[in-house]
């Protein structure tokens, strides 16, 4: 089933939903465009620099598009619709690149690529906060991104540490909520918090939470052809040194040759 037929069928099945319109309008009707679902800001993986989408994930998607003789078209959409598989399986885009941790639930809902990045969670608070660790969160509201593994971790541990989970659509919304005092802390991916607090003097990272997650790219559940292309692209850039160059460019430190180190 080609891209146009797949999108049309998905759109007809979803008439009356918000994703139906996106499925009909995202990307072109031919195979010259690779449509990429993402959610920004999620630096250093995806964010906007002026009118351009840039980041680690975006460089990898451009590499994939070059391999397929296509051009990238970004579809910005809620992270929850990406992480659930709803957007992909509605035909809203061809692939999701959104700092997406590989989980069993997501593998059931979508086709997930091999891992390309090791991720952990982090606890971030306003500068000057008395919170120094998870043990200090009792009675506070803790911000998370909807549909994220940070939200799952927070929900699993809220009762133990006595905090209330409050979900937001984007990392930008979370940063604003912390800065204004609307919430007392946040649990979200370490790499993006490291990037964001470099330019946010009113926020500080107080604890790394080792969850040993791995990011992957996602495609429609039955799109094994595109998934094979993604995995082949990743194999090639791991082997030829391109991955190490991009890792150092965006993560700011040398790649050790092992995702788990």
Automatic annotation (TrEMBL):
The subcellular localization recorded is: Cell envelope
Cite a single GO MF annotation: ligand-gated monoatomic ion channel activity
Per the record, GO CC terms? cell envelope; membrane
What are the boundaries of the signal sequence?
A: 1-22
Against Gene3D superfamilies, the record matches this protein to: Periplasmic binding protein-like II
Q: Where is each Ionotropic glutamate receptor C-terminal domain found?
A: 33-253
Q: Which UniProt keywords apply?
A: Signal
Please identify the protein, giving its name as recorded.
Answer: Amino acid ABC transporter substrate-binding protein (PAAT family)
Q: Give the top-rank taxon of the lineage listed in the UniProt record for this protein.
A: Bacteria
The similarity comment for this entry is: Belongs to the bacterial solute-binding protein 3 family.
Query: What is the protein's species of origin?
Result: Glycomyces artemisiae
Report whether Disulfide bond shows up as a keyword of the record.
no
Solute-binding protein family 3/N-terminal domain span: 33-254
